[in-house]
Amino acid sequence: MASLSFLLGMVPGTEKVETADDQLRADLQTYKDYEKSDELKHYLELEKEVTSSGFVLKKKKIKKEKYKASEAFRKEERYNKLTKRSKGEEKSAELTELEEYINSEEFIKQKQYLIMKPAERYETTEEYQKEIEYQTLKKSEEVIWYYKTKKKYPFKEIERWDLTFDEKFNGSKLDTSKWMTRYFWGDKTMDSSFVLPDDMSFITDGDNIEFYDNKARIVTKAGSVEGIVWRAGQGFVSEDFDYTSGLISTAKSFRQKYGVFKAKIKMAGGSVAQAFWMVSETMLPHIDIARFENGKLHSDFFWGKGNTPQKSVSKTGGAKYADEYYIFTLEWSPNKLVWKINDKVFKTQISGVPQEEMYINFSSNLKKGASESGLPSAMEIDWVRVYKLKEKG
User: What pairs with residue 236 in β-bridges?
Assistant: First the structure.
């Protein structure tokens, strides 16, 4: 059964959820980039110097300096005395030397510097320039953001995970290094597509996969085609179909045990069954991360062996989830399966949790007994992402 929040329609908006996630990941990259930046390195060097006891003492010393306590003052006083004594006499070597010094640029600058007010004098120093630069950087938006983010550090959860599969459908055709367009079992046993007895549409080899605006569309539509169907007691037999549909699967390229599996999908309203699901080497276990059928949104789990599999079925009114994008997620750990819609928990399962690698499938089918109105119909996939916990060590 769906959680109460879903029964009451308390689901956060897709754009808000996606934007928040994208922003958090973008902020993490910005944080890492700034952490390695020359600006932060320079700021930290300035901070170390400016806040050191040596710098503080030097600053105090500069402000306490007095002209009357300086060597320059002592030499000027000596020069004045010798000048008074040597009236009309030939200048001594000492007086000549002092006169040259008193008239030098060095003395003039030193005297001007020392007779300044303490604060004004400090403002002429290299130390003051460093302190101002440090204070300016300290108040900058970049440094404030960096330290505020460092204190809160909202990236702990996403840093626990590695991105192991990423599909944005940016091309104009299907990436066949990632996706196949048949059921794995048909491809493996007879190198052919096939469908199940309750399918009214046949899964073509990619003809029903379309692309636009960086999105993949799995289209179900009218169209005559001969295909193979599996029937109990008969095996695989050829039949004529009046409708075609599509499927994409990572059975050959990507499988994973445990992790976070998510996709942004728009289910089409109407009678076509559309699903984001996972399965392994055999038919069971089978996980419907999201299946839209007969006006209901399902998150189902089937497991066990033999002819009496166990099942856990949860569903909610589907009209809300048709013709709009939602982010459907499965969080799979060794002891639990958690289904989410737009990051809101929809269903939890703790029994029968799969312990083998599984692969991803997206499919769209017209089932027996379903209305044929509303065709063509398309399930749209914006992106697919899979994460796995990072290895400890």
Answer: 230
